[in-house]
Amino acid sequence: MFSNPVTADQYVRVAYYVTSQGAGRVRVFRELALPGQPEDRARLVHMFRDKAILNSLEALVVDRLEHPDAERFADLEPIAASFGNRFRAAYLTPYEAITRTEIWFGRAQTPPTGERLTNSHLQERWALLQRYRDGPVDVPPPITPPQLGALQGESDIVWRLEYAQNQ
Amino acid sequence: MSIFLERWDRFWFAPIPPHVYALLRIAFGLVGCGTLFGLRDLPTFWFLDGLVPLHLGAVGPKQYLITHGLGHAAGAALYVVTSVSFVAMTIGFQTRIAVPAALFTSLAQVAWNYLPLSGADAAMRVFLFCLVWSDSGSVWSVDAWSAARRKVAGPPTVVERSLFAPLRLIRFQVALIYLNAGMWKIFNPYWRNGSAVHYVVQSNIYRRLPHGMPLGFDHVVSLLTYGTLAWELSFAFLLLFARTRRIALVAGILIHLGMLLTIEVGPFHFIMLASYLAFLEPDAVPRLSRRLLTFLGRPPSVPARLETAANQ
Known about the structure:
Chain A contains 3 helices and 6 strands; from the N terminus they run ββααβαβββ. By secondary structure, chain A is of the alpha+beta class. In chain B, 67% of the residues lie in helices and 1% in strands. In chain B, α2 packs antiparallel against α5, α5 runs antiparallel to α6 (95-112) and α13 runs antiparallel to α14 (268-275).
């Protein structure tokens, strides 16, 4: 266990592109998938959902190493399907549909031994993540949907687009 | 040559009291039940539109169930059957069926949805495989209790002795788990430079407390990195001698308890601590239980019957 420790805090964010019947406007909603529990509290119970997401990401890394020429991998599809279904059931009306799902993997570097993030630094990051945790956040849609491998920065988190599926 | 064969025979096939197997059955069963309780969210972990890999190109029973629209029912049925198997195993009800059923359903779970599973579940499957070959239900079980009730008027129930082999295999497996982990770690630069535990306890995925380990503990954390590495690499060899075996096991208990307090990794520590029961001296387990029963003021009825068996 922990043979290869990760040197960054890890996050997964899911984005849904939603269109309404008759209306041409696209709305984009984001929610946090990983970690499942707030980081500013003690973690007392195991989140099997977190483990499932981490295993999916690990499978993606392995698949990429084994098939460097492949354009598409199915490893993150369970995350997109599961979160998409939940989002659809909880927030969408029968006249709305998800037209695109994106999965972004975020990393925030852990300081090396002898250093720690300042409290204000952590508070800023946690406040940002709390917005996503409170429910899907409606964000302005991009002019063109980002390509796989696109990067975005939020607080000290660097997000990378790992999965995108148009429906 | 005959001495070698005799020792080989004694090493693997010496008869031992079955109590240690019963203890392992209960401990592994409890860990299994706890894991299944954590996976009780059927739509997320067992239904096909949850966090379940579909692998639609695959063949086999899963593909058949998906194409025939039986995915949800099959997922729910697998969860129920797995839970029933583990509960039956824990209480020792129809143990000869329950333990293989727990193993089989655990394997089926990997095929159905491996995503929420971890190394702890892999270890569980191996331990269950070993336990299948032992008579873990002849004591401390519903089976034993109902057999004793049926024979209340007859001669005392004789507790059959079990073979040592499954217990040896569990011990080997525990040693291999640590040796394998230690060998992998030694190739990682963070384990070699003493910072690996720092990154684990600071990780937002694993740390128990919001801020991880305080800055002042960094030297301790560095020592823990090297200590863990040394302990994992030497564990298998320390088991060879009675005195060093105790040191290895006590260190293991302390390391697992320490990790349990500082990081959250699911059932891993529980399954490993449960597996340490395999290192109890098999003859000491019924003795300890007798003492415990005497201490609790209950008549040790089972051990009296055990004496009959042991003296045969």
